[in-house]
Write a structure and sequence with these properties.
- It contains eleven helices and seven strands.
- By secondary structure, the protein is α/β, with parallel strands linked by helices.
- The protein has a seven-stranded mixed sheet, with helices on both faces.
- α2 links the parallel β2 and β3.
- The two termini are 51 Å apart.
- Bound molecules: uridine-5'-diphosphate (UDP) and magnesium ion.
- Uridine-5'-diphosphate binds at residues 12-14, 16, 45, 73, 75-76, 79, 96-98, 100, 206-208.
């Protein structure tokens, strides 16, 4: 007999009182094949409206609904992370409260999970949002794809379904400013994209301001890339090389012309000196940056690797016993 597989739906909510009744309605009516059980974790990220009273009313009444109230507003990504820490399902389904990501898509996500994919992430084919937001997101994902040390899929947000193994792997790291779509890509495992159309907000106002978006982008770039640090080193080496070339030209002109340099010559010498010292300083900063990068990585305590599967002979297999027999046999003979 196989027991039911459980899926925890995690929803971060910040001042979402306007949309909560709609959200509740849609979540309550979610249905899957009978072999699955759905439960919910609603995270109140320090709301100041009556989001919490609504959440706690729902969760007190219904089995399988858990409400968590954070002590203050920690931001979307941290609220989600707190939700992951509370989720107990065999898979975790991540959803925004504003119904921009259709909850009913869960069926398609579960289908892919059943097919053996451990991360099913939503990719937006269309966004029904303001022009500036579309441009901001589009350019952000493209910049990130260029600078990040890992491959973060284009136009994929946090809307996803993750297997328990993946959630556990993510939670092993010690991120203080998690960038979930980055860590999700970083941990690996079998991942697949699922296309969907992003709807406009069902009710209420959006909570992500431009400054929060910029902060998210900064977290994404600096959390998953050492390229900005490398750029300092490279520019330092470039300037240093330039200075070296000017200095060489200056010395050669003295030797070849066998004369004291004129004003232009001394200017070149000055430039060479300046470039050499600037180059040296930049390179040194870059080197210090390399160490800072390493300290950052050590501080975020991301494990070295994750094992997704192990294949070996079961420990009680006959051949192992045979081996033990042989060991005993030879030991006795040697004695
Ligand atoms: N959110 C949150 N904490 C915040 C900001 C937002 O938990 O500090 C939640 C919000 O309630 C919503 C989700 O994060 O469920 C996405 O927020 P929003 O819809 O404003 O962002 P956008 O759709 O513009 O990315
Ligand atoms: Mg939204």
């Amino acid at each position: 007999m196989t027991s039911k597989q459980s899926i925890t739906v995690v929803v971060p909510c910040y001042n979402e009182a306007d949309v909560l009744p709609l959200l509740y309605e849609r979540l309550r009516n979610l249905s899957l094949e009978p072999e699955y059980r759905i439960d919910f974790v609603l995270v109140d990220d320090g709301s100041t409206d009556d989001t919490w009273s609504q959440i706690s009313a729902i969760c007190r009444e219904r089995e399988g609904w858990k409400g968590i109230r954070l002590s203050r507003n920690f931001g979307h990504q941290r609220a989600l992370w707190s939700g992951f820490q509370q989720a107990t399902g065999d898979a975790v389904f991540v959803l925004d409260a504003d119904l921009q990501d259709p909850p009913e898509k869960l069926r398609d996500f579960v289908e892919q999970w059943k097919n053996g994919h451990q991360v099913v992430y939503g990719v937006r084919t269309k966004r029904k949002e303001s022009v500036w937001k579309k441009i901001a997101y589009k350019s952000f994902y493209r910049i990130l794809a260029r600078v990040a040390d890992i491959e973060i899929p284009l136009d994929s947000g946090d809307f996803c379904l993750m297997d328990r193994q993946v959630v556990d792997a993510m939670l092993q790291s010690n991120e203080t400013t998690p960038f979930i779509r980055g860590i999700r890509a970083w941990v690996g495992f079998r991942q697949v994209a699922l296309e969907y159309e992003r709807n406009p907000r069902a009710a209420g106002r959006e909570k992500y301001s431009l400054s929060m978006l910029v902060e998210l982008a900064i977290n994404g770039v600096f959390g998953f890339s050492r390229k900005p640090l490398r750029m300092i080193t490279w520019s330092g080496l470039l300037v240093f090389g330039l200075g070296g070339m000017i200095a060489l030209g200056f010395l050669l002109s003295i030797v070849l012309n066998a004369s004291v340099p004129g004003d232009l010559g001394w200017m070149a010498a000055g430039m060479a000196g300046l470039s050499l010292s600037t180059g040296l300083i930049l390179t040194s900063i870059g080197i210090v940056g390399e160490y800072v990068g390493r300290v950052f990585e050590a501080a975020s305590a991301r494990p070295v690797s994750f094992v997704s599967e192990i294949s070996e002979r079961p420990s009680d297999s006959p051949s192992r016993q045979e081996n033990q027999f042989n060991v005993d046999f030879f030991r006795k003979r040697a004695a």
